[in-house]
Amino acid sequence: MVWMREKNVTENAENMPMKFVKKASTYVSTHCCLAVTIVFTILLVAVAILPLSPININYEAKFDRNINKESVTFVFDTYDPKSSLGRQSAIGEGNTALIRVDPVNYSSSTLTIGIKAKNSNVRLISVNAVVHSDGRDWCTAASLPAEAFHIQSRNGTIFFRAESQALSHFNWQIRQKSALKVGIVAVLAMLYLLIISRMTVFSRVRRGYFAASSVVTAGILMFLFYLWFGRTGLAASKFPYRTIISGLLVVVVLLVVLNNRARNFSASKRNLTCIVDYIFAAVFTVGQFVVYLKYYSHSNDEMAHLSYVAYERVHNQLVPKFEDIRIYRDAVNPTGHISLNDSVQFNQLGHPPLYYLIMSHMPGITNTGAEVTYHLGVLRCESFALGFVGILLCFYLGYTRIARIPLLHLLYALMIVSPPNLIFVMSGLNNDTLAFTCVTILVFGCIRFIERRYTLCTFLLIAIGAASTLLTKLTAGMIVGCIALLIVGYGLLREHARKAILRKEFACSLPIYILPIAYYATLVMRYGTVQPSYQKLALGEYLSGPFYTPITKRLDMSLSQYLVYYWTNFVHSWCAIPYASDIQRPTLTAFGLDSIAVTCVLLLPLVIIVCAKARLSKYIALGVAGTWIVMLYQFWSAIEGFLSEWICGRFPESVLSMCDINFCFCYYRVDIAVFCKACG
């Protein structure tokens, strides 16, 4: 019996660990969230306790008096074949000497600071280890007070040698506040939130949807981390760039969540959600305008546009005498008063006059004879309003033609206003603002024609859009002309819509085309061309100006090199604002983290062509063909300019301007509305 009792005790003692494991497993399975929280808490405590390698550490020695421009040396006991690594020098600024510590010196057991001071009574106040990156100090990791140093003076140099015990504690504090801990804690926090959300809020969500949402969320968090800690140079920005971008991102995420939930709403609530999406996009557009207007300069051509407006204010000519239009002195440094008798150079624009006639009769500009008084801020607001009408019209086309899927409306609205150059150009005086609206009007008419709505409104929209664009900007007019001819021609020849041209509605729209025909016919008779050039009207000024490079100063660039240059700047101009000196982004790439979405907008038309249904895909292909015909023409003009005048650094000549690109793809964006209606 005693033997049996001893055997049972032994078996119970051996089984106790297994019983404990089973009980712990049962407890964990019934309290998963608590168990996960305990595990991550232990990990966080371990990260907080364990010292890690420091990064981005500056040593900042502060003295009790000015040591400006005096030599200060930090000497470490680094044992390395290259002994110079243990000696780092700094030049005093004010009462401070600063070095960026070489990582090999982080583990040094001694630190001696030597200063060749003119005043032998200089004393060290403290040495601070500061975490420094992106041009600013993030925190002070550790500090050595004056009491931790022994003072010696030899050969005119004062030495401050740190005690080994104090320096050891100093190095330990630096490791305790290593910046690596921030990244580790961020990763642990993301994993914790991911696991807890899967266990609780999203426990019933399909695994694939949850995985996709997790990837998107991780991407957003990575972008925010990159924005606040990875992007350099933003600390000196003129406005709170990081705060604004972060706020916009939060709002967009909330809108995405709302739109995703709205698919289960009633029809009226879905419509309201779509309207909210467009209101947000409109507010975002106006916000961009305010930022550009307040904080940034405008295009170099704005002084030429302002001079053109002033000329039309005085002369009010439907067909201007381009040889008489100049850039006036006050337009270069605007003060609010222009005298047409005080010019500095020839005005190279040569654009049709519609935009300038409209702006010359707007509030904010008056004249007495050749003296013009204007308010530049008011004119910029009015110019922006002309382009904003086109954006609102795009929103209307999307709202009335895209299927009532709120997320599609949000995507469409953001695609319209996301390319940065669009709103930037609209923020100043530029005929591209009116051209954008005119192109949108024509696209509206083409969409109605595709829908077989052969009414007076349809033909008037096509006629007004084409005529007004041709009277605003020639390249934009070429685009809409090609699009209209191809689409209408295809409809008439292949879809048995020839009866449309026999309608009285079409005949009523014909007189509108007389205006651009008469304008360009007058130019041909007067100048022998449809757009008078700088070279033809002012050859002497052209050859001595910035648009011509003498043969002796031209670089050697082959045709293949120029093609690479052209394409690189073409894509860059879509994602950035290359000609604004204060917001250039030379390191931006088309497929970077903060530009990939805008690049996708550029490439989306190709996807639509492949995915659209048969009839619609033919019309979209014709629209794409129309824009690319003009773009190829622009490319050929750029090559000719490069070969004859070596114009390779100026975007309006060497690379299709961003505004023209926006007009090209305005058609594509609105085609999304038709595409979604057909597929939805």
Please render the helix and strand layout as text.
Elements: H1 2-30, H2 32-49, E1 57-63, E2 71-76, E3 87-91, E4 96-100, E5 111-115, E6 124-133, E7 136-145, E8 149-154, E9 157-162, H3 164-176, H4 180-199, H5 207-230, H6 241-262, H7 267-295, H8 302-315, E10 326-328, H9 329-332, E11 337-339, E12 343-346, H10 354-360, E13 365-368, E14 371-374, H11 376-401, H12 406-417, H13 420-426, H14 432-450, H15 456-470, H16 474-494, H17 504-509, H18 514-527, H19 534-537, H20 539-544, H21 559-575, H22 596-611, H23 614-645, H24 651-654, H25 658-679
Antiparallel strand pairs: 1-4, 1-6, 2-3, 2-5, 5-9, 6-7, 8-9, 10-12, 11-14, 13-14
Helix pairs in contact: 1-2, 2-4, 6-7, 7-11, 7-12, 8-10, 11-12, 11-14, 11-25, 12-25, 14-15, 14-16, 14-25, 15-16, 16-23, 22-23, 22-25, 23-25
Question: Could you give a quick summary of the protein structure above?
Answer:
This protein has helices at 2-30, 32-49, 164-176, 180-199, 207-230, 241-262, 267-295, 302-315, 329-332, 354-360, 376-401, 406-417, 420-426, 432-450, 456-470, 474-494, 504-509, 514-527, 534-537, 539-544, 559-575, 596-611, 614-645, 651-654, 658-679; strands spanning 57-63, 71-76, 87-91, 96-100, 111-115, 124-133, 136-145, 149-154, 157-162, 326-328, 337-339, 343-346, 365-368, 371-374. It has 680 residues and is of the alpha+beta class. The chain crosses the membrane at residues 26-50, 178-196, 208-229, 241-260, 272-293, 383-400, 407-427, 433-450, 457-490, 510-528, 587-612, 619-636.
